[in-house]
Write a structure and sequence with these properties.
7 helices; 231 residues; globular; 25% strand; Rossmann fold; alpha/beta; eight-stranded mixed sheet; single chain
């Protein structure tokens, strides 16, 4: 059986809706939290599939989170070997950094459900399943587009919402895995300050989650299933 490793940068940010298509594709999944003592020595080349989830920290906050530098270095080595890797939100920013791009605070806090505009490359990729479907955004950092990748999606505030390199590397700034996971309540509870900075409210986000969540998860699952088929 193929192996998949999920790197969790925050306990409340897990595979959510992506779990079903990844397991259906034949991956036995394990999880590791970056706070675990053994994370610094973990071989990120070992799993057949590596999935990097989100988190509240920035890639540039390496003094506060020393594991970030180690993770980026090991991620760069994995990418250089062409091993299948998926990054979501902070995970996408980690991938960008591993490819040599700069990650920095973004122009605004982008929080809430909204659709992404697909590029021509995005419309000809597994992201085609997301066309017109509002996805959950929950980020305040952005990154330069790494050299040698295909830009797949944008929003007015964040030009670089998704990119790929070849069939095995996919980076998503938005959360196509979220929409039905009860851990969303933990996001609301832990992110009150971030939510206020974005100019929205937990009540509004909860309503958007109820309205758009099921369709977002269905589209996200279809996207991941197609991406996995192409590995």
């Amino acid at each position: 059986m193929k192996t998949g490793l999920i790197v969790r940068h925050a306990p409340q940010e897990d595979l959510a809706g992506f779990g079903e298509p990844i397991e259906a594709a034949g991956y036995a999944l394990e999880r590791v939290d970056v706070a675990e003592p053994g994370f610094a020595g973990l071989d990120l080349d070992a799993p057949d599939l590596l999935v990097l989830m989100g988190g509240p920290m920035g890639v540039y906050e390496r003094d506060a989170h020393p594991w970030i530098g180690h993770e980026v270095e090991r991620l760069a080595a994995r990418i250089a070997r062409g091993l299948p890797t998926l990054g979501v939100c902070l995970g996408a920013q980690m991938i960008a950094a591993a490819l040599g791009a700069t990650v920095r605070p973004g122009p605004v806090k982008e929080v809430g459900f909204a659709s992404v505009a697909l590029t021509a490359a995005g419309a000809d990729s597994p992201l085609r399943h997301l066309a017109g479907v509002p996805m959950l955004h929950w980020h305040g950092d952005s990154f330069d587009l790494p050299a040698g990748v295909d830009l797949l999606a944008s929003t007015p505030a964040y030009a670089h919402q998704a990119f790929r390199r070849g069939p095995g590397l996919l980076a998503l700034q938005f959360h196509a895995e979220m929409g039905e996971d009860p851990r969303f309540e933990a996001w609301l509870a832990k992110g009150s300050g971030f939510i206020a900075q974005a100019g929205t409210t937990p009540e509004r986000l909860r309503a958007e989650h109820a309205t758009h969540g099921p369709a977002a998860v269905a589209a996200g699952r279809a996207m991941i299933a197609e991406w996995l088929c192409g590995l």
